[in-house]
């Protein structure tokens, strides 16, 4: 299939792109990597009248560490995230999750910001970002506003970003101390969308008690699901079989997946419980220095 007819623009600066967005509004779409948008347009599930190609906006393609947080430009390719030594050192969870995205060719074109704005609830980058926390810097012609990741995802394929706005960069805090992380997903085959995915980052104190934890599940709701009840349960506790069983019980209560052609709701719930336990356990072991190799 082929997309519906559209007018094409290729701005050279962020200011030019924002002016176009202000003028075009709901009738336009931004394209960067195009790994999600192009198939949707080919199937005519999206028929924008105007396509704004932002690949010339090199100011939005960067990875920087300022001592307390990582700053990543929205146009940064997923492969750059995967290969970045700085990301691997400071945001191990993100470094571990990105290789699950599609295939090499997909990641060579797909962008960090594009995956976030597309907001597929089973996608690896939104899931990881929710586990890591941070803020999204969203630009319009009038201002740049900051949105916490918890407030950004609204529902399926829908975010807080407005038609006249552009995601410019993402700031992710770099945790200090004894920190562990883990990402796991189950898919029908490598490169497919995850049936269920789980991400966890946690820190422990000098006595091995969990000081802070964020557990997120994908593929079980319309948005990446932060399991706040599990976070509250874990904080101040040692990891134990009893604690892991309680986490599984919480997941069983809070997730509400739907059945589709690929998996039943019951199977997704089962996977969610298993992956939540595995992910928390691996993150805790890494924080203690017991699980340094990726699995």
What this model shows, in words?
This protein has 295 residues and is of the alpha+beta class. It has three domains: 7-53, Uridine Diphospho-n-acetylenolpyruvylglucosamine Reductase, domain 2, CATH 3.30.43.10; 58-173, Uridine Diphospho-n-acetylenolpyruvylglucosamine Reductase, domain 3, CATH 3.30.465.10; 178-287, CO dehydrogenase flavoprotein, C-terminal domain (Enolase-like, domain 1). 36% of the residues lie in helices and 24% in strands. The chain has helices at 14-24, 37-42, 78-83, 85-90, 92-97, 104-109, 112-118, 124-132, 149-152, 228-234, 241-254, 265-287; strands at 7-9, 28-31, 50-53, 63-65, 69-73, 135-139, 144-148, 153-155, 158-159, 166-173, 178-186, 196-204, 210-218, 225-226. The strands form four sheets. Strands 4-5-10-6-7 form a five-stranded antiparallel sheet. The longest helix has 23 residues, at 265-287.
């Amino acid at each position: 299939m082929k997309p519906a007819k559209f007018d094409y623009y290729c701005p050279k600066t962020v200011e030019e792109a924002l002016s176009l967005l202000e003028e075009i509004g709901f009738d336009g779409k931004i394209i960067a990597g195009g790994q999600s948008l192009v198939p949707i347009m080919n199937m005519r599930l999206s028929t924008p009248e105007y396509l704004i190609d932002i690949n010339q906006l090199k100011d939005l393609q960067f990875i920087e560490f300022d001592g307390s947080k990582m700053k990543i430009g929205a146009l940064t390719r997923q492969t750059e995230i995967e290969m970045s030594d700085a990301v691997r050192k400071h945001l191990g969870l993100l470094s571990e999750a990105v290789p699950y995205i599609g295939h090499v060719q997909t990641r060579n074109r797909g962008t960090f910001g594009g995956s976030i704005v597309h907001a597929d609830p089973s996608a690896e980058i939104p899931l990881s970002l929710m586990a890591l926390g941070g803020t999204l810097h969203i630009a319009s012609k009038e201002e740049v506003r900051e949105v916490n990741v918890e407030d950004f995802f609204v529902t399926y394929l829908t975010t807080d970003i407005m038609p006249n706005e552009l995601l410019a960069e993402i700031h992710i805090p770099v945790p200090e101390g004894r920190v562990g992380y883990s990402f796991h997903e189950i898919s029908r085959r490598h490169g497919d969308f995850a049936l269920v995915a789980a991400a966890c980052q946690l820190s422990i104190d000098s006595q091995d008690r969990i000081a802070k934890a964020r557990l997120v599940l994908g593929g079980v709701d319309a948005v990446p699901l932060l399991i706040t009840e599990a976070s509250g349960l874990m904080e101040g506790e040692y990891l134990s079989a009893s604690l892991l069983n309680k986490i599984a019980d919480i997941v069983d209560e809070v997730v509400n997946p739907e059945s589709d052609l690929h998996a039943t709701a019951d199977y997704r719930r089962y996977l969610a419980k298993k992956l939540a336990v595995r992910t928390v356990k691996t993150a805790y072991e890494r924080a203690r220095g017991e699980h340094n190799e990726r699995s």
